[in-house]
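Standup notes
- HV: blocked on the assembly model, inputs below
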Amino acid sequence: MARVFQKPKSMTSAHTHYCPGCTHGIVHRLIAETIDELGIQDRTVGIAPVGCAVLAYHYFDCDFQEAAHGRAPAMATGIKRVRPDLLVFTYQGDGDLASIGMGEIIHAANRGEKFTAIFVNNTVYGMTGGQMAPTTMPNQKTTTSPAGRDVTNCGMPIKIAELISALQTPAYVTRQTVIKPKYIIKAKKAIRKAFEYQMAGTCFSLVEIVSTCPTNWGKTPLESIKWTETDLLPYYQLGDCKTPDA
Amino acid sequence: MAKVLMKGNEAIGEAAIRAGCLNYFGYPITPQSEIAEYLSRRMPEVNGMFLQAESEVAASYMIFGASAAGERVFTTSSSPGISLMSEAISYCAAAQCPAVFVNIMRGGPGLGGILPSQGDYFQATKGGGHGDYHLLVMAPNSVQEAVEMVMKAFPLAEKYRNPVIILGDGLIGQMMEPVEFPDHLVSTPSDKSSWATSGMATRKSTQRNLVRSLFLVGNSLEDNNRCLKAKYDQMKKEEIQCADYNIDTDYEALIVSYGTMSRVCRTAIDILKKEGIEVGMIRPQTLFPYPDAIVQKAAWKPSCRVVTSMELSMGQMVEDVERVVQGRRPVTWFGIAGGIVPAPEEIVDEMKRVLHAHQS
């Protein structure tokens, strides 16, 4: 019987530790499919963040480094500068990239470091238990904003893709989501494009992916998808912010 | 090879290149910015890589990433910058990534000053970052010795898969002295294919490599820490380096001093000798591993009545001197930590005072 569907070669057989309804698993798969399709598994180095994806190296079957919180872009810079022939991607959450690691991502992007940043934005610190992140929505309840995010106190959520796009150097910056098949297809194309730009030595690229965190949102997986559509996507608008061709 | 007159900072940069390290990430800070300035023009001449990072934090993680990818790398900074790098240094030690750090110490704490100091002894030898780890710490007292220590640091870092730090001070960095770069210290990078994330194709393997410092399962963290400890124990057996001065006499007092301060002490010992007072000196060149047995033996010499730790700090190495002397001799401390290097006469006066206070 013909096998019509299987796990990508660049994924291990390990079961993920992600919660039901979390979209990390989909994003992992899209990256692994891309690595397979481009035939780059044996020269790819991934960098895992601190956060829910800290154990990502259990699931990807390629060389991997584990960063300190927020520092993945500096480590990716280190690798690419001494081994430009390797393909490097960082996998970072919003606490990691948009808060403690803001300095590293901005400067890596601005220098045009030739790696790919995959930025998973689920509006909370997942692994530490759902605390408020710079990306938390106004009035969104978290464990450190029990009355809801007060924007007069904490400011408005940071739109990373737009922020990075304001820099002149970075060339490919896009925001996607993976909450429905039609979005997954687009997100896959974006991830593949980002890796292709890296292979061509074109530019730094960042793919922001609006994701779900049912556990810390206190919602079911289906409610989470719905809330993402009704509340997150109007603020975190999907699409390319910047392309090399523009 | 002929000697050339070079500023310490520039000689340190050149020494790394001569040692076979062609990758530098750094961030400017006084009194060591000349290293980055020198390398920014020198690295392109040797097809090397120079990158000015956005912060010491970022520079140190670039070091971690590049080292984890299997390449020789180094960075340099001064005290406040080393504080910022200490997080990454802890990660490098935990993940067993070799790298060379240079600290051209300035006065602290806080922003402190920009003049020479030895105030980072504790930071370098006892930790700095979090967790159970040590650095191999080497302390030069001349530009020539700084060059040789930098050149030795790369193979040592690779031998132990552990960061090595050169603990200099502002005087070593800023002073000009004649130096040569010994050919016999040129080394070939070690084979890192068993652990480095160099890409599976690079090492013709189907096995991926992981570089990590998170150990959650079972006893894996305990195992990793025991593995690190075994390396530090091996360093204690194999890497101690130490110099001495006027040690073959029946000295009445022993000075223990390192780096710039030890050069002042040497002149003071000469002055004291002319006055008929014999003082010996042990000069640790490795601060970790510390030359316990050598300092102890010298301190316990029957003629020796008192041991003084001479430092450009408010009393840091003296704790190690006390530890190894084990109360068998009185141990005193003399130090200056405001960025001033004392005159030999101040050391002479202090040794006379100490000897008077500890009559036989």
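- HV (later): unblocked. The radius of gyration of chain A is 17 Å. The mean pLDDT of chain A is 97.
- Next: hand off to the docking folks.
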